[in-house]
Amino acid sequence: MVSFARNLLCVTILAVLASTGYAIQCYQCNTFGIPKACKRNASNLIDCSTVKPPVHLSKVGAATGCIKRIQRNPSMPRPETLYSCHFGDVINKQGCQFSEEMKLQQYTALSCDVCTEDKCNGSASLAPIAVAIILFLGVAHLLT
């Protein structure tokens, strides 16, 4: 009976941890060349499951992560940073592509980072991962 309860608890914990990836939250903002224009706050945080992909990525489907792209806008004196939801394959960074309109305006990407954890396109934070690891190890210790 104890073995069944232990297995059920482990499966429940794994299911909860696995389900957190389905509705990713990302920061959405554009600095428009002003470095501190996008401060990390709740008003810039969005649920990517409610955001439709851009037209040039409409065949890709739902958001798969968050993106932070530093780009040069020809009409701005400084590079601008775009924070948003990422649509497409996280590995090949398909969502880093510019729309045809932006290509015509001669935008250029200086860097593009894609990540798959909640709020990961803001400043880096390991706190949620650390809490999950400590919780898992604590439960495993109690069950042995």
From TrEMBL:
Main localisation: membrane
DNA-binding in keyword set: no
This protein's UniProt keywords: Glycoprotein, GPI-anchor, Lipoprotein, Membrane, Signal, Transmembrane, Transmembrane helix
GO cellular component: side of membrane
Listed transmembrane segments: 125-143
Topology term for the membrane: Lipid-anchor; GPI-anchor
Segment forming the signal sequence: 1-23
Subcellular location: Membrane
Keyword rRNA-binding: no
InterPro entries recorded: Sleep_regulator (IPR050975)
Name listed for the protein in its UniProt record: Uncharacterized protein LOC117565172
Gene: LOC117565172
